[in-house]
Every structure is written in C-alpha cells, then in structure tokens.
Amino acid sequence: MPVQSTNPDYDAHIEEWRMMDDALEGEGAIKRSPRNLPKPSGMTEAEKLDGAGNAYLYQNYTARAQYEHWVRDSLRSMMGLVSRLIPEVKLPAGLKRLEDNATADGFGLSQLFLRIVRQAISHGRVPLVVNIDDAGQPYFATYAVRNAINWDTADQGGRQDLVLSVFREFRRKEQDRYSHEYETVYREFYIDGSVCRTGVRNEAGELIEDDRPLGTVDGSNNLVRGLGYIPVIYCGSTDNSPDVDEIPLLTMARAALKSYQLSADYFTALHQTSHPQPWVSGLDESVELSVTGPSAAWDLGPSGSCGYLEFQGAGIQAVRTAMEDQKNAALEAGAKVMDVSGTESGEARKTRQNDQHATLHSIVITAAAGIEQALRYAAEWTGYNPDEVAFKVKPEFVMPVVDAQVLAELQKSVMAGTISAETYWQYLTTGKLPEHPYDEEAELIGDDHGTGGVNLDKEDGDETAANSGREAAGAGQPPLGAA
Question: Ranges for the DUF4055 domain (predicted)?
C-alpha cells in the first residue's frame, strides 16, 4: 500500500474534523463549502437551463444565510478558564531549558499545554511527537488532527503499543523568499525489530531523507541504544490511547450548522415577503413596459391586467422556531459557557458551569499526562532519569472566594494555638484550606510557637500573618535585579 494510506478510523472521522475546522474558522469558511448548505431543487433545475445566468440564485441564497459563531466563542471562553491554570513542572537540570523552549517554534511548556488543550476541545485529538534537534536537544511537535493520517498498534512484549505513525507535512519549495508554494511529504515512524526508525517520503513513496534508527548516539553519531518505542502520544479528550476520542464541541457545531441552513430559508423568506413580484398579462404587442417603481404608471391597454405574486410567509415562524430549537440544543449539549437568555437561577448557572468544568477537567488531566509522558520519553532518550520528570496541572476553574467570617474565626484559632498561621495564610490567599492530615498541622502549630515561629496577638495579628506569608512566598527567591 502507498505511504498515503489512511487508518479506517481516520476515514470515519475526517468529515467531523473538517466540520470543526470550518466551524472554528467562521462564516467565511462555512460559506466557501457548498456541502454546508445544500442547493434547493428549484435552483438546481434553474441552473440546468442556464448555469451561468441563474447562478445568482444560489449566491444570493448563501449570502443571506447567517452562521452563529457559538463554537468559536465557546472555545475562547473555555480557554480563558484554562489559561488561569499554572502547571507544576519538575525536570532534571539538563532539561530545564524545556520550560521556556519546548516546541518546534520555540515556545515553552505552558504554551504547549494550552495548544494541546485547545485542540483537544475542538477536535478531540492531538498528536504529540518527541524529537531531537541537530544540537542533541529534545523538542516537541504537534500535528493538526487531519495530518495524522495513519497509525497502528500491535503486541510488543505482551503490551499493545504503537508500531506505526505516519504524518503529512508541507514543506516550502526551494524558490525565492516570497513564494508560498509547498510540497506534500510524509514522515513515518515505525518499529523495525525492537528499534524505532523514521524517514520522510514524497508523494511517490520515495525516501527524501535517510531512513534512520532513533536513540542515543555517541560522539561519532553512532547508535548506542535504540528507542524501543515510537515517541508519539495521541492526546485525547478522555484518554491518551491511539483510538479516536469524541469531540467535545461536535454537537454544538452540528447545531450551529443546522441553524445556518435554516437561516438561509428564513432570511430568503423575509426578503421575498418584503419584495413582492409584479406580474402582467393580456398586453398588446404595441404596449411596452420599460419603467417601474412607485412614481410610474403603466398603460396596459384595453385587455391588459396586472397584480403581485405576494409571498405570504406562512412557514416563516416555523423556521424561526426551528432555529431557536437548534440554539437550545447547542446550549444543552455543548455550549456550557454561553449566556442563557432570560432569567437564570443561581442553581441553574452553577449546574451549567459544573458541566463545563467537568468537560475541561478530563481534558486538562489527559493533556498534562500526555506532556508528562512526552517529557519522560525526552529524558530517557537524552540519558536522564525519567523518574525525575513531573508535569502536573490542578484543574481548578473557580475563582477563590474568601469568606470574611471564616477568616475571622481562623484568626481566633491561630491566636488560640489550635491552627497554624500557614493555614490561615493559605485560606487568605486561595480561599481554600490545606489538604493535609492533622499531625502535619500539629507540627506547623509547634513551629509557630517555637523560636522563630509566628505569634499573632490582637494588635498586630493581621500584619504579622501577612508579613509571614510574604516571607514564605519569597523564600528562596533572589532580590529584584539579581542575576
């Protein structure tokens, strides 16, 4: 089979991914694809009679349609929540540079995390590839889901592991600097024996880059230890297996597309209702009607008659109702971040936000796990201990709220010696109490009342706790201006 061969799951989901691409790009992309708005039968028959002359009918029909940007707006709102999260990163000293320079285009791990979450929300799948540059430094590359065309798994030492991954790439042709012409190539990773190999082929399947093994090399670029796995992770919306996951925003995209199709009929009907079509009959050959309008009069002769073909619009309200139904379907199935029209109770809003947060929770967890696995691959590949790698993100999307009454009671407890000043400070800054057993809290209380501890009294309790918290937050940090 040729290198362009695709996985059956890819073929089954490619139209959904194209739909999501169009939905995110917006109305321009939706209207460029005739498949998004089927042509009415009357327009089809009219174009059979005169294709060029009657093409304006469908063009006007499409121009009047309106696409609602629910998908793009919801994605932006969800990413606004995710952007508040701060990853907790732990790396060996030799890989610290990845925190600020981890991607193929020079961005850090936080940016990589946001990219993966965004694509997982919009497409349900993010291929993440670990590679080594010419300087021997690891980096990560993500592919658009439509360009991860083929993959396969097989039994490897009793486990089902990847044995093939093929990606479509676009390389600029060797021309002048102003050219934007590209050629399509295919990068493949596959297991040969017990070692991963990679190569790049053109459309004809010919190698254009040497097929080589991946792994640790010595100073002479000789392979010392080959990789026994393909360094590719397929991050998903629910897990990180190679199988295709569901698209969180797909139901909303379908509702938006159906609303767009209905709007074409709705706005066309409104246009025809406000612009009735005049008709005349029974005119003599000598009668010529060359002028029309509110200030003109027609002489129809002794046997002529006229009137209006007036569009009554009996079905307009039904179409409008159907458009509202699609909006409600989007709200219920996927548009959890959209504002609901009318009055919404506090419990209803809380339930809606909880649904949204549950979706984001699983995506954030799988994205962080995928990046952590990629970092472990990079550490092992470059000779570091993968157990020293960690990438964690706490999916907390609710802004902290500090209750003044609770804070006052905590201050009394600190002064009474029943809780620690650190617990008081954590609630003051985060709105949450620490999650640790009481014996750890007891140790903190003992530290507060020992030498060098924090002791709150009635006069300066707030100021002392605040100063203690600032000192704790700044511990280990260099002064401003230090190198």
Answer: 248-382
